Request: fold
Amino acid sequence: MCLLLLAYRVHPTYPLVLAANRDEKYARTTAFAGFWRDHPHVYGGRDLEQGGTWLGITRAGRVAAVTNYRDGNAVKNGTRSRGELVANYLRSNQSPSEYINRVARESHAFNGFNLIAGDLDDLYYYSNRGSRTMAITPGVHGLSNHLLNTPWPKVEHGKQVLDGLLKHETQEMIEGMFALLADRTTAPDADLPDTGVGLPRERLLSSAFISSPDYGTRASAVVLVDNYGQVVFVERSFGERGKLRQSVTGRFTLEAAVNAA
Reply:
């Protein structure tokens, strides 16, 4: 995943509002979002090559997402799949802080990553290219392929737009987030970072929605969790050149809300 926008404990109805794009090679086989057959409490898409995921939520309210940290000069071969960082958390019973500390101890086994993991009460951020674990505070946050809230153009623009969308009705907010995720506008060269991949690649990767012959945005997702534990997870999946392949909507109630009813 290469863009994640998050409103945490900001909206009066939805303590969690999330919009995300997953960018990947078109050749990598992927399952559409849904409940996993081998772990039916987990909802999300799935990488069919390694079994991990980039974004998911469970019936217990555990939520996690990962993005790569882009550093073209430091990529290593033979590392573990970063998608397992999300999948392992969603499948586990460890508290968010315990899990993040475990990941920190094993972080050398992965190429650069950013991990967000937690629940509606406690949400944490950790990067093996950063200096420490952070508890995510209430507010609007953005994450791409550098550290949390690094002011890359698409992160700053995304945070501003998401903040404005929070004032709209639910359906308008959802469609607005998908429009934001579909934006193919590239940033001016003067605003581009230097992550070691060369200027043409920096241009390509600067837009929210990415399209190239072999690599691009494979899925856009919007996730809402309301004060009553109602989850809405909408995913739009794309093929080569950004052609829409499928749109799926999952709706379910968190276990804590069901038990309290």
The longest strand covers residues 215-225. The CA atoms of residues 67 and 103 lie 15 Å apart. The chain is about 20% helix and 35% strand.
